[in-house]
Design brief:
Blueprint lengths: L2 H11 L1 H7 L26 H14 L1 H4 L16 H5 L6 H7 L13 H22 L7 H4 L4 H11 L13 H4 L2 H9 L13 E5 L5 E9 L3 E5 L5 E5 L4 E5 L3 H7 L4 H11 L4
Antiparallel strand pairs: 1-2, 1-5, 2-3, 3-4
Helix pairs in contact: 3-7, 9-13
The chain binds heme C (2 copies).
The site of one heme C has 19 residues, from α9, α11, α12 and α13.
């Protein structure tokens, strides 16, 4: 496992600390970020296509509360640190929580088919296992350890890999004033989860049976149904077999990027972002 990956993950799991610092979390000392995720009791593997389906379903149906990567949210809602997930075997514990919810605690019951549940379970286990593997024995990361980058090299990397969507003088201008240290790293790596960032719904374009093209933000998606919220705020849905559609998730570039950064690249880009005052 490359070192960069462990730093990425630690940054991700530290999101709740950032929230605590803003006084929105629980009492100090109770941060789940200070503990390692509980070890999975029964290691399980799932096929790649099931994981991909699970990811889509998770983002659409669980992501707003648990983060798109299951590590978002506060306290018990970070599923990569859940001991219930650690003890689960192929959905035996997850299934009842999903279907009954915990209405008193803020989780509604969620209707899923057996197939959908199996895919969601696969994704949650994959995220949980990645968290425990990557986090290793480390409990925290010192921001000073990350200050080894070269801002000039980071700028070059940024211009090659990021300017398609970002601009140093536009949207990211002054970012180092808004965000510092781990909070900045967290946003750079996982803009879609925790850390105060809103979860943005992917854009979707549907070609309806009569040929009409309708665009909006993804409101719901499963095997049978695709639904969006159009610009007027109306919810519209179609059976998937009757329409063609294209989902464009702007944050998928960041997910792909995680696999591309080397240690040095990541430190360089981080150094460069810190110069954007
Ligand atoms: C509206 C917000 C919301 C949605 C949507 C939601 N959850 Fe939750 N979930 C919560 C909250 C809040 C808790 C914490 C309940 C508690 O403290 O006991 C929770 C708890 C859980 C737990 C128990 C964790 C533990 O360690 O006890 C699991 C597992 C879980 N959710 C899975 C899911 C899955 C899978 C989905 C999507 C199918 C989902 N949730 C959708 C809010 C939500
Ligand atoms: C295909 C488009 C795309 C590419 C390529 C991309 N990003 Fe992003 N980035 C996004 C989107 C979308 C967001 C979320 C914006 C939001 O939530 O306001 C984002 C958010 C961010 C944020 C947080 C911004 C804020 O205001 O909090 C940072 C930092 C960032 N990206 C850095 C990078 C870096 C560094 C690269 C290149 C290595 C990169 N991004 C490549 C689309 C992209």
């Amino acid at each position: 496992m490359r070192i960069v990956a462990s730093i990425l993950l630690i940054a991700s799991t530290l999101a709740p600390v950032h929230l605590l610092a803003q006084g929105r979390g629980r009492a100090a000392g109770a941060s789940p970020a200070s503990q390692r995720p509980p070890q999975t009791a029964t290691p399980q593997t799932y096929p790649a296509d099931q994981l991909a389906t699970g990811q889509t379903l998770f983002v659409a149906r669980c992501g707003s509360c648990h983060g798109r990567d299951a590590a978002g949210g506060e306290g018990d809602t970070d599923l990569t640190r859940s001991s219930l997930v650690a003890e689960d075997i192929r959905g035996d514990k997850l299934g009842p929580v999903v279907r009954s919810g915990r209405p008193d605690k803020g989780m509604p019951p969620i209707t899923v088919s057996d197939e959908e549940l199996a895919a969601i379970v696969a994704f949650v286990h994959e995220r949980h296992t990645t968290a425990e593997t990557l986090l290793g024995g480390r409990r925290s990361v010192d921001v000073a350890d990350l200050q080894t980058g070269n801002a000039g090299a980071g700028r070059q990397y940024f211009e090659a890999a990021c300017t398609r969507c970002h601009s140093a003088t536009g949207d990211l201008s002054g970012i180092s004033k808004r965000l510092q240290g781990l909070a900045l790293l967290q946003r750079m790596l996982y803009p879609g989860s925790g850390g105060g960032g809103a979860v943005k719904a992917p854009a979707v374009t549907v070609t309806a049976p009569n040929g009409q093209i309708v665009s909006g933000t993804l409101a719901y998606r499963d095997e049978f149904t695709i639904a969006l919220t159009d610009s007027a705020g109306s919810y519209r849905s179609w059976p998937t077999r009757r329409v063609t559609f294209k989902v464009d998730d702007p944050l998928s570039a960041h997910v792909e990027q995680l696999g591309k950064y080397t240690d040095d690249d990541m430190h360089d880009v981080f150094a460069y972002l810190q110069t954007l005052k």
